[in-house]
Specification:
Mean pLDDT: 79
Strand content: 15-25%
Number of helices: 12
Helix content: 40-55%
Order of helices and strands: HEHHHEEHEHHEEEHEEHEEHHH
Radius of gyration: 27 Å
Low-confidence stretches: 127-137, 144-154
């Protein structure tokens, strides 16, 4: 009996050691990747370097578009048309480098693709181009080491100095106006278009190796983010393409651990949970709560050379994502103001508060989960229905309260006899 007990205890000890080694290996892998990625990003930002993209002639070629959107031949044909139009306007665009490519389009009532456009970010033959960057005191300075931002460099510098728009000729002014608004931190025009017609988009990083952590540099070949956003819901699918099955398996393990780490970061560091207070529930960091819920909704799938992350979300998650885009745009605007006019951040904000278009703290830039989609921003079918239900519940509660305090006919005093 004693031998059996000692043998069982030894087996349990061995299992605990193996489990501890496995967990330690996973934790070390995440730490090595995160620390290496941070140091690599820090070096790129402090040195002011721009990552080397893929040749524009290859990224904007018919074969590359077909490899990205082969399941949608109509979209490929429409994109070919706008690219040919842009290349015919300026043949030197073929000599550029593309670090990131954003594809957007809409669909009409019959399901036909309308307003296809490509935003190519990188370096093109234009000596007058200026780099874009985040301001040293902007929101995103909180996301990385403070000393890193003292030089005024930013993540946008990594992708390149130019943004070239390929679109239909009659839509050029509209796209340039919307791009200008986004770079100024104004997302209302984009949201109005999304409410009117759902936005379909794809973000492609053709050569993500230089942005990846050192130990994942040879693991990723391409990163593609595809999604659809409406006023009340949306969905996103991110595809990581690896060179072989082993690399894809390795990346899936590390990426899954990163997702878990991100959830802990938003939940614990930013307080992304609804707090029980003496006066009731308090959701003071609503955007962190939305990101935690968005991570919980995510699904990670490994399919041969692909690692796919899928997620579906609602209006509140849309607001959190769009608010992040708005903050990034405001940082870019502050950086440009600082470099072009020499304004300090508080001078920029103070001067902009009385602008007819509305400053950052004006009514056009509200805070909370009901902006930009919702009761405080652009109404959507879901927000209107929720508002109507709340009004009905208030009216019902008021009626019940009135009936409870008013005297009934049986308790009323009898009428005097005549």
């Amino acid at each position: 009996m004693r031998k059996v007990f000692i043998r069982s205890l030894g087996i349990c000890g061995i299992l605990l050691v193996v489990a501890g080694l496995f967990v330690g290996w996973r934790v070390f892998g995440v730490y090595r990747t995160a620390y290496g990625g941070y140091q690599h990003l820090r070096y790129l930002l402090e040195s002011g370097e721009t990552v080397e993209g893929a040749p524009a002639q290859d990224v904007l070629s018919d074969s590359y578009l077909l490899s990205l959107f082969g399941d949608n031949p109509e979209l490929v044909d429409r994109l070919k048309a706008v690219i040919d139009l842009g290349m015919a306007t300026d043949a030197d665009l073929k000599l550029g480098q593309v670090s990131a490519m954003v594809v957007s389009y809409h669909k009409d009532a019959s399901g036909q693709i309308t307003d296809p456009a490509i935003y190519a970010v990188g370096g093109f033959p234009d000596p007058k181009s200026k780099r874009l960057g985040f301001h040293s005191t902007g929101y995103f300075s909180q996301e990385l080491d403070r000393s890193l931002w003292l030089s005024g460099n930013a993540v946008m510098n990594l992708l390149g100095r130019d943004i070239i728009v390929f679109c239909e000729q009659e839509k050029a002014e509209e796209h340039m106006s919307m791009l200008f608004d986004l770079l100024q931190g104004t997302i209302t025009p984009l949201c109005q278009r999304i409410v009117k017609t759902p936005l379909h988009y794809a973000i492609v990083f053709p050569n993500p190796k230089e942005l990846a952590p050192p130990n994942l540099r040879n693991t990723l070949q391409t990163v593609i983010i595809k999604g659809e956003m409406e006023g009340d819901n949306g969905k996103t699918e991110t595809l990581f393409v690896a060179p072989n099955y082993r690399s894809a398996t390795q990346f899936r393990v590390i990426f899954k651990d990163f997702v878990t780490l991100s959830r802990i970061f938003f939940h614990d560091h930013f307080g992304g949970y609804i707090k029980d207070m003496p006066w009731g529930k308090m959701n003071d960091v609503w955007w962190a709560v939305a990101y935690v819920d968005l991570i919980d909704r995510s699904e990670i799938v490994h399919d041969q050379l692909l690692v796919v992350a899928r997620s579906e979300y609602d209006r509140i998650h849309n607001n959190a994502l769009l608010k992040t885009v708005e903050r990034a745009g405001r940082d870019i605007a502050m950086q440009k103001s600082y470099h072009l006019l020499g304004d300090l951040p508080w001078e920029f904000t103070y001067r902009d508060k009385d602008s007819p278009s509305g400053g950052y703290w004006s009514h056009a830039h509200r805070w909370g989960s009901e902006w930009p989609f919702g009761e405080e921003g652009i109404p959507t079918p879901g927000s209107q229905l929720a508002s109507q239900q709340r009004e009905e519940e208030k009216a019902k509660a008021a009626l019940q309260h009135e009936q409870s305090v008013s005297p009934t006919t049986s308790d009323a005093a009898p009428a005097p006899a005549i």
